[in-house]
Amino acid sequence: MSEDIKKEKEEDVTQEAPSSEAEEKQQAQEATPEEATEKTELAAALEKVEDFENKFLRAHAEMQNIQRRANEERQQLQKYRSQDLAKGVLPSLDNLERALAVEGLSDDVKKGIEMVQESLLQALKEEGVEEVPVDSFDHNFHMAVQTLPADDDHPADSIAQVLQKGYQLHDRLLRPAMVVVYN
């Protein structure tokens, strides 16, 4: 009888074993849609993370560009801050030159005008305003208001006379020099 009981237990165990394998397969099949859902949710979450990271990096780069442009603009404003003042003072310098060219001024008056002119020129020079050089004609710095025929002594594109001085602030032209050019 003990053998019969052992056989029955073995049969029960063998019967239970296949049923437990079947249950595992069934559980695996049931878990697969859940895992698939989790995987798609994970992939979607990773995609969102990547998208947010990309947006963050772009926003960060844009902020750096804005800061860089603002700094450059601030430097330009600082560099050319005296442009309007210089343009306002230049006609006064021209008038002082014309006054010095007048004959019949007493020495004291002439000396006073020269001192005012020198102080204005010095103040403009400290701000970076300089006269445009008039060595040879350059259409970027000079405005030809009259031409004269060139000859052996005066080659083409040389300046015959300066009618009005030109000025530049650093590398920016404030006013071109008005010149007479040999052509």
UniProtKB/TrEMBL annotation:
This is Protein GrpE. Homodimer. Participates actively in the response to hyperosmotic and heat shock by preventing the aggregation of stress-denatured proteins, in association with DnaK and GrpE. It is the nucleotide exchange factor for DnaK and may function as a thermosensor. Unfolded proteins bind initially to DnaJ; upon interaction with the DnaJ-bound protein, DnaK hydrolyzes its bound ATP, resulting in the formation of a stable complex. GrpE releases ADP from DnaK; ATP binding to DnaK triggers the release of the substrate protein, thus completing the reaction cycle. It comes from Streptococcus sobrinus. The keyword Ligase does not apply. It is found in: Cytoplasm. Pfam families: GrpE (PF01025). The gene is grpE. PANTHER family: GRPE PROTEIN (PTHR21237), GRPE PROTEIN HOMOLOG, MITOCHONDRIAL (PTHR21237:SF23). InterPro entries: GrpE, GrpE_CC, GrpE_head. Residues 1-12 have a biased composition (Basic and acidic residues). Keywords: Chaperone, Cytoplasm, Stress response. Belongs to the GrpE family. Residues 1-40 are annotated as: Disordered.
